[in-house]
Design brief:
The protein is mainly α and 188 residues long. It contains 12 helices and no strands. The longest helix is centred in the first third of the chain and has 14 residues.
Length: 188
């Protein structure tokens, strides 16, 4: 994936073949939990991302909220690298709870290799308009066919930013049935 290439593909494969054993994963998880050495901790967090170990998400979700921005950032990258079905929900909650990191979280969400629409749609009802904006933007970049009606409904949102994002997303989704919702917004 383009945002987490710290090693080339052959190095990643060698890492997976040589180091991904239950004992090694346990050691990485232990190191990732301990804040005593920041860069060793980040190294363990990054390695956990390469293991694609679903249970590691529990640890990474905790390190994601670290006060140290570097630890938090590499945790987000590792969660994206794992790409498990829970990854989008974890990153969307992070996007919601850490306003200063919304762009980073959204860029990682965009690169997940599965359809994130089911996880993202829940955030279109959030009380924070900025979270709704990000959710609508992310829906436009995923397979959100079943949710087009929800995006259309957001063209009536109280927030002008959400309405604008909904219109932009409808244009990107290229659904001809959304034409009436967009025409109505021309007067907005």
């Amino acid at each position: 994936q383009k945002y987490t290439v710290f090693f080339n593909e052959s190095e990643q494969q060698l890492f997976k073949e040589s180091f991904i054993t239950p004992a090694a994963i346990k050691a990485l998880e232990s190191r990732a939990k301990r804040p005593w050495n920041k860069w060793r901790r980040i190294e363990a967090i990054t390695a956990l991302g390469y293991t694609r170990s679903d249970p590691a998400l529990t640890i990474l979700e905790k390190t994601l909220y670290s006060r140290d921005e570097d630890v938090s950032y590499f945790s987000a990258l590792a969660i994206g690298q794992i790409g498990a079905m829970r990854s989008a929900g974890i990153l969307m909650n992070f996007l919601k709870n850490r306003p200063s990191t919304r762009r980073k979280a959204a860029s990682i969400l965009e690169t997940l290799n599965y359809n994130i629409a089911d996880d993202v749609i829940k955030f279109t009802d959030d009380t924070d308009p900025e979270v709704r904006v990000w959710a609508v933007r992310l829906l436009a970049k995923s397979e959100s066919g079943p949710y087009i009606k929800k995006v259309e409904a957001l063209t009536d949102d109280l927030s002008p930013d959400v309405r604008a994002a909904a219109c932009e997303s409808l244009g990107k989704l290229n659904d001809k049935n959304s034409k009436n919702a967009l025409i109505k917004c021309l007067k907005d």
